[in-house]
Specification:
Layout: E1 8-9, E2 15-17, E3 24-29, H1 35-42, E4 53-55, E5 61-63, E6 69-71, H2 85-88, E7 89-94, H3 98-101, H4 108-125, E8 132-134, H5 135-138, H6 152-157, H7 176-186, H8 193-204, H9 215-229
Parallel strand pairs: 1-5, 3-7, 3-8, 4-7
Antiparallel strand pairs: 2-6, 4-5
Length: about 230
């Protein structure tokens, strides 16, 4: 870890030992009114929640838990067959009030701090772009963060996340069940199918998040699976 990427150290007591090697990054928003409130909660033993890093809206990066330790940020979650996401991931909290307290775009300074930090993490741990995900991707029935305003396209331009496929057609699956199975194959937990569809839409088609399967998201999912199967979506 390059020291210049981290501005402050505020150790959180909320961690334990990993049981899996790091293969993912999970991005969150704090969902609290202020950065101070979020930092206090992430360091409160009674809250039993933490992350490895928190990035304030002004770009200040705070390290809370050492990367070799298991921070408690993902909760009940699953991605591509991994059900202990905390053990397999680095968690990054982005200060933002979230949907409950006035969700707003993520400032440029915050993204300018996230990109080099994320690039360093991805390189050191050899994390595939497909495994740089949002909290809603790994816990679709419970979480909405980092939400539809998060600039995934910016991360994709730096090859730090998968790019949204370019669509030439719409694709209607034979039935919703076929779409759900394809969604599970891509990596989502489909225990709550509508929630999984909303999570997919929030990430890949944020202009309409209704939990309904349609030809546009069908084509998006098909292209993402195709890219992965031919080895271009690592």
């Amino acid at each position: 870890m390059n020291r210049w990427l981290v501005h402050r150290e505020v150790p959180s007591p909320n961690w334990n030992e990993r049981k899996l090697p790091v293969s993912m990054v999970v991005l969150h928003y704090t969902g609290m009114r202020t950065a101070d409130e979020a930092l206090e909660r992430l360091c409160d033993p009674a809250a039993e929640v933490s992350a490895h890093y928190m990035i304030d809206e002004d770009g200040t990066v705070i390290r809370l838990v050492a990367e070799e330790k298991r921070a408690w940020h993902a909760g009940r979650s699953s991605w591509r067959g991994i059900t202990d996401v905390n053990s397999a991931s680095i968690g990054i909290e982005l200060v933002n009030p979230g949907h409950e307290f006035g969700y707003r775009p993520f400032p440029e300074a915050q993204m300018e701090a996230l990109i080099p930090l994320l690039a360093d993490i991805v390189k050191r741990h050899d994390i595939p772009r497909a495994n740089v995900v949002g909290h809603s991707d790994v816990a679709p029935a419970r979480k909405e963060d980092p939400g539809e305003l998060f600039p995934w396209d910016l991360l994709a331009r730096y090859r730090l996340a998968l790019a949204k496929p370019k669509l030439a057609i719409q694709l209607v699956f034979d039935n919703p069940g076929a779409f759900y199975l394809a969604l599970e194959r891509f990596g989502y937990d489909i225990t709550d199918p509508s929630a999984a569809v909303r999570a997919f839409q929030r990430r890949w088609r944020p202009s309409r998040i209704d939990g309904e399967v349609d030809g546009q998201i069908g084509a998006l999912l098909f292209e993402l699976l195709l890219e992965r199967d031919v080895g271009r979506a690592r």
